[in-house]
């Protein structure tokens, strides 16, 4: 398979992040991927390699500036120039407002917003020198609509969306495509099926988001011609209420 370039997926978990990593690997990209603990990437790495893909797992706390800087330096200097950077950290945690301590709020913001800023800034530093690249941020329903009990998550995701929009306006004229994907609905994962079992049982066929099918949109956005770039895309199952 011809190598097309290097992609970094920050937050390559067992659901959407893993699906995005696998999809880019099938497309011919050399995949760098992170989680906080590198051993949690063992199964994903084995799956990618068994299918003929190339991947490099990293254990990185994406909230730590010095670690993120080191990660980008290592990839650029030892693996290759980054063509795509995907920020996919969630932090979807439920707390009633009176139970939301400052520590909880700050931690959610660090994970879902501040870490996105660090990733976006470092990606821009390298991509600007080449005049090309794609930076994709994973959003959620909370990016545009704050639900009761999710003040911290909504605040962080709103901030991430604003970051993405600002970056898109700044970097687009420099040849860098920045896009924000709103994932509006429950993603089909073992965790979701355990925690929302009754709700999922009540849904009709194809009523829950398939992570592999969401991942197709990340490839689509990266491959868009620059005469018709999309900034924001929202994906939801056909029966999801807007």
What's the SSE blueprint?
Blueprint: E1 5-10, H1 16-26, E2 29-35, H2 42-50, E3 55-59, H3 65-79, E4 82-87, H4 102-130, E5 133-140, H5 151-171, E6 176-183, H6 190-195, H7 197-202, H8 211-223, E7 232-235
Helix pairs in contact: 1-8, 3-4, 4-5
Molecular structure report:
The chain is of the alpha/beta class. It has 8 helices and 7 strands; from the N terminus they run βαβαβαβαβαβαααβ. Strand 1 (5-10), helix 1 (16-26) and strand 2 (29-35) form a beta-alpha-beta unit. The longest helix has 29 residues, at 102-130. The chain is globular, with a radius of gyration of 17 Å. The N and C termini lie far apart (41 Å).
- CATH homologous superfamily grouping: NAD(P)-binding Rossmann-like Domain
The Rg value, from CA coordinates, equals: 17 Å
Main sheet: which strands, in order across?
Answer: 3-2-1-4-5-6-7
Name of the level-1 CATH class: Alpha Beta
Envelope shape: globular
Question: Please, what is the oligomeric state?
Answer: single chain
> Quick one: biggest sheet?
7 strands, parallel
- The fraction of residues assigned to DSSP E strands is 15-25%
CATH overall fold name: Rossmann fold
Mean pLDDT: 94
Overall CATH architecture: 3-Layer(aba) Sandwich
Q: Give the distance, in angstroms, between the N- and C-terminal Cα atoms.
A: 41 Å
Total of domains: 1
Instruction: Give me the count of strands.
Output: 7
Question: What is the number of helices?
Answer: 8
Q: Segments where pLDDT lies below 50 for 5+ residues?
A: none
Strand-and-helix sequence, N→C?
EHEHEHEHEHEHHHE
């Amino acid at each position: 398979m011809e190598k097309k370039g290097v992609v970094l997926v920050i937050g390559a978990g067992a659901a959407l992040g893993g699906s995005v990593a696998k999809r880019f690997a099938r497309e011919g990209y050399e995949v760098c991927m992170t989680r906080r603990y590198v051993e949690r990437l063992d199964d994903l790495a084995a799956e990618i390699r068994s299918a003929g893909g190339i991947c490099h797992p990293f254990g990185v706390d994406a909230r730590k500036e010095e670690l993120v800087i080191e990660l980008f330096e290592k990839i650029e200097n030892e693996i290759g120039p980054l063509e795509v950077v995907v920020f996919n950290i969630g932090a979807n945690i439920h707390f009633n407002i009176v139970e939301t301590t400052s520590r909880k709020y700050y931690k959610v913001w660090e994970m879902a917003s501040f870490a996105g800023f660090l990733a976006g800034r470092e990606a821009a530093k390298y991509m600007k020198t080449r005049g090309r690249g794609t930076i994709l941020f994973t959003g959620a329903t909370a990016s545009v609509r704050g639900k009761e009990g999710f003040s911290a998550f909504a605040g962080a995701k709103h901030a991430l969306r604003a970051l993405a929009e600002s970056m898109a306006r700044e970097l687009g004229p420099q040849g860098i495509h920045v896009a924000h994907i709103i994932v509006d609905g429950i993603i089909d994962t073992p965790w979701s099926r355990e925690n929302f079992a009754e709700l999922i049982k009540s849904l009709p066929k194809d009523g829950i988001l398939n992570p592999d099918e969401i991942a197709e949109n990340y490839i689509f956005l990266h491959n868009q011609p620059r005469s018709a770039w999309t900034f924001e895309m929202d994906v939801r199952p056909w029966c999801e209420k807007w």
